[in-house]
From TrEMBL:
Gene3D superfamilies reported for this sequence: P-loop containing nucleotide triphosphate hydrolases
PROSITE patterns reported in the protein's UniProt record: ABC_TRANSPORTER_1, ABC_TRANSPORTER_2
Keyword match ATP-binding: yes
Signal sequence, start to end: none
Protein name, per record: ABC transporter ATP-binding protein
Top-level taxon: Bacteria
InterPro entries: AAA+_ATPase, ABC_transporter-like_ATP-bd, ABC_transporter-like_CS, BCAA_Transport_ATP-bd_LivF, P-loop_NTPase
Length: 237
């Protein structure tokens, strides 16, 4: 069943057309990856889905409802969450305070506490540093914290904007293991990545953007074998 349906959306920044006629579907339980060079419109697509930039044309449905004109906070309340590029954790707060922020809209405090404990079990590095400032974490640990915080919002669809950017190879592997694990636990994921090989390896569907348009879409295995994609994005591994 379709969880997210983006239909023919157009987004402009002044005279710059950032997205044009973009279609995208994420079915319940899927990982969908969006690939493309810098400036292709990937972040804009995620911002449009969250309602952070207005649409010039097209529509968005989430979980059966038309959210095209819904404000961002109600989209978040309905189960959409974005882990933005650069992670945006609050480095002057502790690890634990960052996690608690993810749950700020929830009133089931006992469950929240249990879920924070579950996150600590999953990420022992965060548990050890729970009372330290988030600025003390490595880039990889900050990314795990950003994802942990997003999980506490109880999303139905988690959008990740270039989560592997700047991480060491070890953390990149850990990150992709985590993405697969969260998906196995039932979370649907929309993944924007520059690490094309890894992203195609975990995704159920892939879409390639170029200058704000969808130029390729479909089965990740078929896309990975497509000479056009190999030439454009897989060259550097
Ligand atoms: P990157 O990987 O570099 O973030 P991207 O694929 O996410 O690239 P976007 O950031 O969505 O691409 O940008 C798409 C286009 O819109 C680019 O031409 C960019 O210069 C332009 N753009 C993005 N944000 C703004 C903005 N706030 N104002 C004006 N133009 C913008």
């Amino acid at each position: 069943m379709a969880l997210l349906e983006v239909s023919a959306i157009e987004v402009n920044y002044g005279r710059v057309t950032a997205l044009s006629g973009v279609d995208l579907t994420v079915n319940e339980g899927e990982i969908v990856t969006v690939l493309g060079a810098n400036g292709a419109g990937k972040s804009t697509l995620l911002r449009a889905i969250l309602g952070a930039v207005p649409l010039k044309a097209g529509g968005i449905r989430f979980s059966g409802a038309d959210i095209t004109r819904a404000p961002t906070h109600s989209r978040i309340a309905s189960g959409l969450v974005l882990v933005p590029e650069g992670r945006r954790i609050l480095i002057s707060l502790s690890v634990e305070e960052n996690l608690q922020l993810g749950a700020h809209m929830r009133t089931d405090t006992t469950r929240v506490k249990a879920e924070i404990d579950a996150i600590y079990q999953r990420f022992p590095n965060l548990a050890e540093r729970r009372h330290m400032l988030a600025s003390c974490l490595s880039g990889g640990e900050q990314q795990m914290l950003a994802i942990g915080r997003a999980m506490l919002a109880k999303p139905r669809l988690m959008m990740l904007d270039e989560p592997s950017l700047g991480l060491s190879p070890l953390f990149v592997s850990k990150l992709f293991d985590l993405i697969k694990e969260l998906n196995r636990d039932g979370l649907s994921i929309l993944l924007v990545e520059q690490n094309t090989g890894k992203a195609l390896g975990v995704a159920h569907q892939a879409t390639v953007l170029e200058l704000g348009r969808v130029v390729m879409a479909g089965d990740p295995k078929a896309l990975a074998a497509d000479p056009r994609l190999q030439q454009a994005y897989l060259g550097e591994g």
